[in-house]
Design brief:
about 90 residues, mainly beta
């Protein structure tokens, strides 16, 4: 099961940046681009049924409408940038 998240749904410019600790987020997709930066720890990231282990200083780029999910391994601090295609 997965769900649609409303990031970038409006056809106007939007930009969000936040940092999170021990983030885990279920399978979802959205219209926006997403950049995930691992600041500390490890993160398991699944994108379109492929799973990656991200470590400190790794970066992932997720395109619009790609199914993805995040899961912290032990602990993590990540920064996430989400922006609309119009940018």
């Amino acid at each position: 099961m997965f769900f649609f998240e409303h990031h970038g749904i409006r056809e106007s410019e939007s930009f969000n940046f936040f940092t999170s600790t021990n983030l885990s987020f279920p399978l979802h997709f959205h219209r926006a681009y997403e950049i995930i930066i691992v600041k500390n720890g490890q993160l398991r990231l699944s994108i379109d049924q492929k799973t990656y282990t991200l470590n400190k200083n790794d970066v992932a780029f997720i395109f619009p409408n790609q199914l993805h999910q995040l899961e912290t391994i032990n602990n993590s601090t990540v920064s996430i940038i989400i922006f609309s295609p119009e940018l």
